[in-house]
Write a structure and sequence with these properties.
Helix content: 25-40%
CATH class of the largest domain: Alpha Beta
CATH superfamily of the largest domain: Response regulator
Strand order of the largest sheet: 2-1-3-4-5
CATH architecture of the largest domain: 3-Layer(aba) Sandwich
Order of helices and strands: EHEHEHEHEHEEEEHEHHEEE
Radius of gyration: 19 Å
Shape: elongated
CATH topology of the largest domain: Rossmann fold
Structural class: alpha/beta
Number of domains: 2
Number of helices: 8
Strand content: 15-25%
Largest sheet: 5 strands, parallel
Number of strands: 13
Length: 241
């Protein structure tokens, strides 16, 4: 049974989440402060961690940062309703998703299931290294992209952006996170580089730039690949996980 770690100092919310998670067929472990949550996360293997940002002892941002330095356990952050900065920081530090408080348990469980499915999809072993999304075909080994069976030419960075996003449908990447992963930059002043490359990539893979089908904007946060387009993954794709 998959075990999910819940780190939240609000015992009422934490216990409600535990009940919901257990009723959904998972096991659940609770921690009510950041230090205890970090200890449990480091000492055990969990299928997923639900992590509140506002915690005693050690805040959720620091907990996320320390976990990511050692482990790749999926993390869903619980953020404040109006804190856009917390959402961006969460994604930049490696969180897989965020849920804004107050939230419904159905919404949270939908996010939990989506993150777990995405992680399982990333480790699927099938026959060859090709990503297929309706009219879009990406051959990772040959570094070729077909749209409606016609080859399109991408620059190396455009191709890397496409592979990163397409390998993780639904996962939102902030502009700073994309700079760090694709270009190795940490300076926010280069964020326009991401926008320019995304726009050029869209001009090549989207039939309607004003209503993109594949590469979507998460306003105020960054970009993601459309999770409603179920991929056909061939061979284990271990890059950018």
């Amino acid at each position: 049974m998959k075990n999910i770690l819940i780190i939240d100092d609000d015992e009422l919310i934490a216990n409600l989440l535990k009940t919901t998670i257990v009723n959904s067929g998972f096991d659940a472990t609770l921690a009510f402060d950041g230090a205890e949550g970090l200890r449990l996360a480091m000492e055990n293997d969990y299928a997923l961690i639900i992590l509140d940002i506002t915690l005693p002892e050690l805040n959720g941002i620091e907990v996320c940062k320390k976990i990511r330095a050692e482990k790749q356990t999926p993390i869903i952050m619980l953020t404040g309703k109006t804190s856009e900065l917390d959402k961006v920081l969460s994604l930049e530090l490696g969180a897989d998703d965020y849920v804004t408080k107050p939230f419904g348990v159905r919404e949270l469980m939908a996010r939990v299931q989506a993150v777990l499915r995405r992680c399982e999809r990333q480790t699927e072993i099938v026959k060859n290294k090709t990503l297929l999304f309706e009219d879009l075909s990406i051959d990772i080994d040959k570094r070729t992209v077909l749209l409606n069976n016609s080859k399109i030419s991408l620059s190396p960075k455009e191709f890397e952006l496409l592979i990163l996003l397409a390998s993780n449908p639904g996962k939102v990447y902030s502009r700073i996170a994309l700079l760090q992963i694709i270009w190795g930059y940490n300076f926010k002043g280069y964020s326009h580089t991401v926008n320019s490359h995304i726009n050029r990539l869209r001009s090549k893979v989207e039939s309607d730039m004003t209503n993109p089908k594949y590469i979507l904007t998460e306003w105020g946060i960054g970009y993601k690949f459309n999770e409603e387009l179920t991929p056909c993954l061939n061979e284990q794709v271990s890059i950018f996980v």
